[in-house]
What does this fold into?
Amino acid sequence: MRWKDGRRSSNIEDRRGRRIPGGVKGGGIGIILLALVGMYFGIDPSLILNMGENMQSAPSSSTRSAQPTAREQQEADFVAVVLADTEDVWSEVFKEMGGTYKKPPLVLFTGAVQSACGFAQAAMGPFYCPGDQKVYIDLAFYDDLKNQLGSPGDFAQAYVVAHEIGHHVQKLLGISDQVHELQRKLSKKEYNKVSVRLELQADCFAGVWANRANRMRQILEPGDIEEALNAASHIGDDRLQKQSRGYVTPDSFTHGSSAQRVRWFKRGFSSGDINTCDTFDAREL
It folds into this structure.
């Protein structure tokens, strides 16, 4: 991915190395669930809140050196460029729709972080919090993406950010609020089906971003799209469940299968049109 000459967004909150009062909550099965959910990129922040109600206090997160290493600084620069590209793309899209795009802050943190959606561990992975309309990411996740999920490459990393920004777009369009309102009305099984459609739409929005960012700034290099598709295929509910417990339970899917995530990213990338991302009316995912 051609990124080094790109604009760096100033909409970054760097909280790396800060100590969080109170620290991580929960233990045992709760932590396992958090870690599993965190492997999915588009974590539903309401899960954090619901789990937090029944969790107990534990030691606070540790601090680290205030001075980032050269590698850490490069990773932060990369995220700032990707965020800037999302700002440019979605500002253009919203302008075409007659609206104005509200740029979300992106929070870099180490180990754990406090958000409007509650306390979150790095093990939960990157997430978007609709309560404060911010994206949160511990850059150490990129090591897990490469080493544990088998998804190396800078464009795979960009896809992570683009997916979370996709949730912000859903928030601005009122989509996520409508979906989360259904949580009180539907059974867990039925709500999971709606959640899958929400996540697949965020994947499609990530594809729209990739298409338009490349048109604006020619960011793509050979193999980049394959990196994104590889990442999408490695974070499907079916693949993650198979890896974690040896079997698959489709009724518990919340983010979609590997094939579905790949399909909807490709649809967004092929069209560059947000109107092709209506997963809620799609007969087949």
In short: The first helix runs from residue 29 to 38.
